[in-house]
Design a protein that fits this description.
The protein is α+β, with helices and mostly antiparallel strands. Helix content is about 30%, strand content about 30%.
Amino acid sequence: MAENVYAGGRTAPGEVRDAVRIRPATARDAEAVTNLFLASRAAAMPYLPRVHSDEDTRAWITHVVLPTSTAVWVAEEVGDEVAGEVVGFAVLAGDDELDHLYLRPDSLRRGIGSRLLAEVRGAVKGPLNLYVFQRNAAARAFYERHGFTAVGFDDGGRNEENEPDVLYRWEP
């Protein structure tokens, strides 16, 4: 896979600012992905109950998400002062489900989520499905802006948090 690098924002000649690389995740990313997952959920969805400890979440990402998902990508900073800092990640489960797409709270509205979503779309051959909590208005707006359509609503019985969610689908 080719390296995917983008320099966002205004830069002086020869300066690279806000550069982000999308790359496949490795086992070495488990700690950073876990920390990002926990921080993002706490910031974006403070209403969600904590059903697992940080340690259990770390073990789940380390031993389940990273090694058994179809594909996992991370977005990392590539600058002199911030090289290697993970600012986002996306997980493809099976052939057609975006299982997770999270950004570090201070990395929103920089195009990183759109780039991660493009990476996932490029890896599927047909429609892409995902679930979003109904109360997560920002995520719902993001996916709708990217062409996803709500195709089903659930009462929360299908997830651990018992939080009503929406099934979205994107058709290529």
